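Incident log, support desk, overnight shift.

02:14 A customer reports that sequence design results differ from what the structure should imply. Their input is reproduced verbatim below. On-call engineer (initials T.W.) acknowledged and began investigating.
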């Protein structure tokens, strides 16, 4: 039970989303939809945010999430702002079964009265109201994995319909579709989407999907701070990070990015503990990280972990063993130096530069900020992580 897919809109065009990230748009022209910062769903201390401004034009008002985002039972959640009057019969979000071509969806029943309706198996079930000119966190709970199908709607954390059912054969494949629901030029602002893979998840609770761009986030201050409690911060080379996120298709049955990251950390912790028993501050170890271009024993990666300190903070640097041959790792207040700095992604945290598994696995939010679902933005497929991941225990 977890977030299985999520997205915070950035500066990517619909053409990039469609050609490189498997989205599908009725029209990829900028007149139909484009990134915007006119209205953003944000919080104090957030990285820069964008929304997707979608037009209501004929044959240009819909877009589909990547097919791989679909789950047969769970939740679709989104944050949306509508800056104009609603449009009768447009569908805010629809989950459609691949075989039946029928759906569970939210439709505008009465535009003047701000009335929406829930349909399950294309059959009307209940109505609710949701005013425009405000941000709303909409959560559609659905289940197509059983017969009968199930559906329910929450708005801003509150149930606005009961759980309704309708007889229909179970589906295992499908698609999630969004549509502009207010008139005018790009007046529909979609901020984020999160897909949960279980109806038991508490996905109705409003959350933020946050994306970090490690190549550009270099401010001396920011939202992310080191995880509290005992342990060390972890710096990971870009080469190792690329391997962690590039999971072999065969391995995706049991491996995830979070799991692979945890494997790297736990094994590093064990290796460094063993090394400390003989007075060493570094260790080599092996980790099973299959990628799509591996052959034979290449799935087992030789890794190196080194313990060091800087500015009174303990830091562990992890990478491929051959990256550190003949190099000394020095950590100070401003950089990780003498260790191929160009091979690292960096983020500055409280004036102390750390590379923390691409800035996510070892960093969490301060307690004063809202719950966040981080979204990593890399040159590899986007990675989605729900939990505050482990501190490396030494």
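02:41 Re-run completed on a clean worker. Output:
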């Amino acid at each position: 039970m977890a977030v299985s897919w999520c997205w915070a809109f950035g500066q990517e065009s619909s053409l990039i989303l469609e050609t490189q990230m498997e989205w599908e748009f009725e029209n990829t022209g900028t007149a139909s939809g484009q990134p915007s910062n006119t209205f953003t769903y944000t919080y104090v201390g957030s990285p820069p945010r964008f929304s997707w401004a979608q037009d209501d034009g004929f044959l240009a008002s819909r877009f589909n999430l990547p097919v791989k985002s679909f789950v047969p039972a769970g939740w679709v959640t989104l944050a949306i702002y509508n800056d104009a009057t609603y449009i009768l019969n447009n569908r805010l979000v629809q989950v459609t079964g691949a075989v039946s071509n029928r759906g569970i969806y939210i439709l505008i029943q009465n535009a003047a009265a701000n009335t929406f309706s829930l349909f399950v198996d294309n059959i009307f079930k209940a109505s609710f109201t949701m005013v425009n000119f405000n941000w709303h966190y909409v959560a559609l709970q659905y289940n197509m994995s059983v017969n009968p199908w199930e559906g329910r709607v929450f708005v801003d954390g509150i149930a606005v319909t009961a759980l309704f059912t309708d007889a229909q054969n179970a589906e295992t494949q499908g698609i999630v579709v969004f549509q502009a629901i207010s008139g005018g030029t790009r007046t529909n602002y979609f901020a984020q989407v999160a897909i949960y893979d279980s109806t038991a998840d508490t996905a109705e609770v409003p959350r933020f999907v946050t994306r970090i761009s490690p190549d550009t986030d270099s401010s001396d201050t920011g939202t992310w701070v080191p995880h509290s409690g005992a342990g060390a911060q972890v710096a990971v080379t870009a080469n190792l990070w690329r391997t962690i996120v590039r999971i072999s298709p065969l391995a995706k049955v049991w491996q995830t990015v979070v799991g692979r990251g945890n494997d790297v950390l736990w094994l590093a912790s064990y290796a460094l503990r063993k090394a400390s028993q003989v007075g060493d501050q570094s260790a080599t170890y092996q980790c099973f990280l299959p990628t799509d271009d591996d052959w034979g024993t290449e799935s087992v990666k030789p890794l190196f972990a080194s313990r060091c300190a800087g500015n009174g903070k303990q830091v562990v640097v992890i990478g491929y063993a051959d990256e550190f041959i003949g190099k000394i790792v020095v950590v100070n207040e401003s950089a990780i130096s003498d260790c191929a700095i160009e091979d690292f992604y960096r983020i500055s945290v409280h004036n102390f530069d750390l590379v923390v598994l691409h800035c996510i696995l070892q960093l969490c939010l301060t307690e004063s900020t809202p719950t966040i679902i981080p979204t990593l933005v890399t040159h590899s497929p986007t990675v989605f992580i729900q939990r505050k991941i482990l501190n490396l225990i030494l």
